[in-house]
Amino acid sequence: MSDTDALVEFLADRHVSCPNCGYDLHGLRNARCPECDLQLALRVNLVDPRLGAWIVAVVGLSCGVGFEVLLLAYFGWMKLVSGFAPSAVAMVPLVVGFMVQGSALLALLRGRGWFRRRAGWARAAVASACWVITLASALVFFGLVG
Predict the structure, then answer these.
(1) What digits encode the pLDDT tens for the residues 5-40?
(2) Residue ending a domain, choose from 11, 26, 44
(3) 125: left (phi > 0), else alpha (psi -120 to 50), else beta?
(4) Which domain, by its residues, includes 33?
(5) Which of 64, 74, 79, 138 is the most buried (most CB within 10 A)?
(6) What is the mean pLDDT of residues 132-145?
(7) Is 120 found in the same domain as 79?
């Protein structure tokens, strides 16, 4: 049985809406929505994809990366406009924090499947570690600058 045959058989006696336009696909004869003309597929999906901890981790690292990029851009702008150059003591933790958190964020974004396969406690630990790294980076910066 082909994928199209399985889809047609599934929709023969069910009222299912197109995920794109909402058109009722009941009695569909091919694998394209007649309303929006997009290709359709019959798939098995998770009811609960367990993305809460992953989102918390991504937001934590994104906050840190955004903070560091904003400060680096500010320091660059100040150097161009007024000639003010922050000390190396202020710049080193920003650059190191950006590299560490940026790398961790990229790894997390590319490894969503790996993350979802971890046990609940492991996902919570990774999400917590992401926020600890972000907060530690901010504390190091403000401790050295302030």
Answers:
(1) 899 999 999 999 998 889 999 999 889 999 999 999
(2) 44
(3) alpha
(4) 1-44
(5) 64
(6) 87
(7) yes
In the chain, the N- to C-terminal Cα span, in Å, equals: 68
- Of 105, 100, 110, 81, which Cα lies nearest the Cα of 138? 100
Q: Which amino acid is at 18?
A: C
pTM score, two decimals?
Answer: 0.67
3-state SS assignment for residue 32: strand
Are residues 56 and 96 located together in one domain of the fold? yes
Q: What is the dihedral of CA 60, 62, 63, 69, to 10 degrees?
A: 150
Cβ atoms 128, 73 nearer than 8 A: no
| 104: exposed, middle or buried (Cβ count in 10 Å: 0-12, 13-18, 19+) | buried
Residue 35 burial (CB count, 10 A) = 13
Tokens coding 45 = 């999906």
| Tokens of residue 16, six digits | 């299912």
- Residue 52 has phi, psi (to 5 degrees) of -55, -50
- Same domain for 81 and 136, yes or no, is yes
Q: In angstroms, rounded to a whole number, what is the distance separating the alpha carbons of residues 33 and 28?
A: 8
